[in-house]
Amino acid sequence: MKDSRESYGTLSKSLHWLMAVLIGWQFLKFGDRVADGEHWVGETLVPWHVSIGTLLLALIVLRMIWAFSQRGQRPQHEDPQGRLVKIGHGLLYAAMLLLPVTGILILLGGGYGLNVFGMQLIEKGDKIAWASTIGGIHSTLAWALAALVIGHIGMALFHQHVKGDGTLSRMV
Fold first, then answer.
1. What does the record list as GO biological process (predicted)?
2. CATH code: domain of residue 101
C-alpha cells in the first residue's frame, strides 16, 4: 500500500488512475460547446460535471495528504530534470486543486448553490460578486490543466520508451 523508492504503492496508483479517468471525463466538457451541448456527450456525461468535479476536489485533497505522508519514501527524480519534474507535478497538483474550487466559486457567485450527486450541499443564495470574479479563471485553468496533462503523458512515454528508465512502470 505504501510507496517505496522503487515504485508507487497501491493507494498512490489507485488515486492516480481514478483521477486520470475522472479528469478525462471532465475534459469532455470541452466538447459541450459543440452544438450547445445538444449531442450525446452534452446530454449524458456533462450534467455530471459539477458532481465529478467536487469528487475530484475530495480526491486531490486526499492525494495531497497521502503524498505528503509518503514524501521520503517515493521514487526520486535525481537526474538533471528532477527539478522540472517537481515543478511539473506541483503545477498539476495546483491545477487539480484550483479547478474544482473555482468551479464551486462560479456556482456560488451566480447564486446557484452546490448540488452534488443529488444532494444539496450548499443552498441557493444571493449572487456573490467576488466569488464570480475568482471563478472566472476556471476555464483558463481547465485549458492549462489539459496542456499539463498532455505534457505529463508525453514525458511519461518519453521516459519509458526513449530513456528506458521505467518511469511509467512505477505507476502502472
1. respiratory electron transport chain
2. 1.20.950.20
3-state secondary structure 17-71: HHHHHHHHHHHHHHHHHHHHHCCHHHHHHHHHHHHHHHHHHHHHHHHHHHHHHCC
Note down the domain range covering 53: 10-170
* Residue 131 lies inside a defined structural domain of this protein: yes
How confident is the model over 53-101, as pLDDT tens digits?
Answer: 999 999 999 999 999 999 888 887 777 778 888 899 999 999 999 999 9
The answer to whether residue 3 sits within a structural domain is no
Site of grid cell 515504485? 7
Give the total number of structural domains in the chain: 1
Range 49-69 burial, b when 16+ CB lie within 10 A, else e:
ebebbbbbbebbeebeebbee
